[in-house]
Fold this sequence. Notes:
There is one protein chain. The protein is of the alpha+beta class. The protein is built from 18 helices and 15 strands.
Amino acid sequence: MTPARRTSGLSRRHFALALPSALLASGCSAPHQGTGRPGDPIVLTLLSHYASGVLKQALQGPVDEWNATHDRIKVQTKAVEFTDLLTTFMVRQAAGLGADILHPYCLWNGQLVKAGVLGPAPSEHAEEITRGYSQAAVDAASVGGQVYGYPTEVQTYALYYNKRLLREADIDGPPRTWQELEQTAYRTARRDRYGNTLVQGFGLSTADDSTTVGQTLALLHAAGGMFLAKDGQSTAIESAAGRAVFELEHRLVASGASAPGVNVYKAFRSGQVAMVVSAGWWTGSLKTLMGKDYRDVGVAPLPLPEADGKRATLCTGFMLGVNAASKHPRAAWEFLRWLNTEKVNVKSAKVGGKATRMSSLQVSAGSLTGRADDMRTLLGAHSDTNLRPFLDALAYAVPEPNAPGAQQAKSLLRKTIEALWTGQQSVDQALRTTRRQIDREVSRSW
């Protein structure tokens, strides 16, 4: 799933303090690599954040299948919580204990490449990846035009809305433009006589990076804007599109149509938010938690500033790559090709339906991949119609920038957005602060 919280880079002091816990979290002893005798199998380690629940089970299934059918190469999974993942990659690498196969959040790719943790994909794998995945997924798994791994989980952003709340406000359907979005937000918002929020017309939330920044960047892309310049060395948000997004959010908060202090994840499923921008993983969670009330949930493409505008939205994701220091890179890439490109029969699909093991894994956990053909096979004609906008968005989504300072830039942007929402900064101040702080962060030497 798309993470709820992101981690940042390490200072030397924090690096030293984090070392023991990071080694313990991911298992400080190296896996058994064989005796060195002829015929002794290679044992690869795979480090991810699939530490528990359905994700852990979903990954272990194909790993067990591989180990049962391959004598020469074995794979051993290790996992930590997402909040510890970047730290664990960096600390274990410095200690000479890096895993052979890594499953990073693509936002970190530039930092991991700069630190010598990720190695580039061999040309034959890069060609397969470029050919088999959506452009957004390929771009997310690349740094400086070089592909570094197979995209796995891919999340696009769209507009969730409560059909009942819109119907009660005499609104026929979801908004298509920002003007309609504002009107819908104002008409559906409700407060009690004491001024307490009963229903947010448009949900804005300070819950975490994924929510706060994800919503804003999705709207920024819908307006034709970008967060960072193409070279990753400066911010591009101080633009007409960036100003338009900040002004839109400021108006919604100032009018009372949005209440950022409310947890939208809880409030939406309770019928207390009419609309909210979020990623596709949420559909499965809402379906489970809302029960029969899930019938009130609809999903639509993001509204555009103008009706005739070009569609765009945010794309986030993860990938599987190989450690630059792995002693067995060819074996690691062999396993990754099997997991991510070899197609197998899909029981739930029509006769002859096939998909990759990774795509089947992600769909079983309520997620998507960047393989549109696999998604059509796995989701089928009778799947949840709310997934369709997220699948369609693979064709026009824009990935998060992944320059070396991208994680730190994202954390700084979150603070500025929250200052704007809480009235601590005006739109002009927020744009200037964003440019000054983020330009300094992403332009420094990594």
